[in-house]
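Retro notes (design track)

What went well: tokenization of the new backbones is finally stable.
What didn't: we kept losing track of which sequence belonged to which structure.
Fix going forward: every design gets posted as structure first, then sequence, in one message. First example under the new rule, 254 residues:
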């Protein structure tokens, strides 16, 4: 739990359901930011071309605040997608979110990208398999089921090949709805070998809008943490660590 003091935290606690949340999502190819609270999502910005996360994120936040006529001094909580996802994008989002929270003494809430992909399908009655492209011929995935008010995770987040996803779905006996950019990339294989259907393309990326919605529910229960307690969910070593390990092995062998 957050243990700091300050005007911003006081507003978050005393404001109850009126707390405003800034959501930052950069774990995939999409950059997404949103602001919302008890009135729902008040504004959002999304772009999914170029993968220029570092160049896009700060101007996107500034633009969104201006259009929504909300200053950062009115924000009570910063929410961020903690992954799994693409390493560079995740680092940009996490660093920016933490910088804002630390500068303004704000609590934070971290939510998984797989939760964010599954959440928009909460009104259906089929099992949901969120599949996010991990590159290197791998995907991140998780199994969910709709429950009143949201979705419930049925498995821990995992990383592996599409063969492993198919095996997992078949072993569980599911007739699922697959969602995510990884599901779109491997759509033919998933439908042919695991059954089920593929969700619409516009749901392929995690979005800051459901991030704000999910974070608001947690904020009402004061389920926030210090900025330094937010940790990325990588599921596999970063590329730089893999490359350095290979390089060290090569040096020892030479």
């Amino acid at each position: 739990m957050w243990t700091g003091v300050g005007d911003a935290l006081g507003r978050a606690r005393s404001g109850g359901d009126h707390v405003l949340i800034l959501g930052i999502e950069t774990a995939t190819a999409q950059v997404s930011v949103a602001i919302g609270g008890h009135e729902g999502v008040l504004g959002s910005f999304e772009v999914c071309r170029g993968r220029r996360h570092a160049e896009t994120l700060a101007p996107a936040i500034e633009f969104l605040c201006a259009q929504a006529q909300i200053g950062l001094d009115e924000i009570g909580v910063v929410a961020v997608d903690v992954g799994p996802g693409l390493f560079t994008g995740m680092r940009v989002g996490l660093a920016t979110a933490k910088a804002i929270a630390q500068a303004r003494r704000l609590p934070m809430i971290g939510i998984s990208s797989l939760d964010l992909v599954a959440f928009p399908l909460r009104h259906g009655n089929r099992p949901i398999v969120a599949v996010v492209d991990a590159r290197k011929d791998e995907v991140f995935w998780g199994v969910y089921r709709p429950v009143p008010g949201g979705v419930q995770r049925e498995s821990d987040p995992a990383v592996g090949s599409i063969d492993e996803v198919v095996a997992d779905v078949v072993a569980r006996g599911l007739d699922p709805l697959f969602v995510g950019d990884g599901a779109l990339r491997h759509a033919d294989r998933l439908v042919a070998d695991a059954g089920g259907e593929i969700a619409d393309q516009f749901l392929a990326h995690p979005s800051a809008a459901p991030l704000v919605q999910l974070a608001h529910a947690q904020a009402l229960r004061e389920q926030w943490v210090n900025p330094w307690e937010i940790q990325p969910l990588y599921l596999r070593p970063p590329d730089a660590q893999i490359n350095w390990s290979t390089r060290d092995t090569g040096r020892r062998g030479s």
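Added context from the reviewer: The chain has two domains: 7-113+206-244, 115-203.
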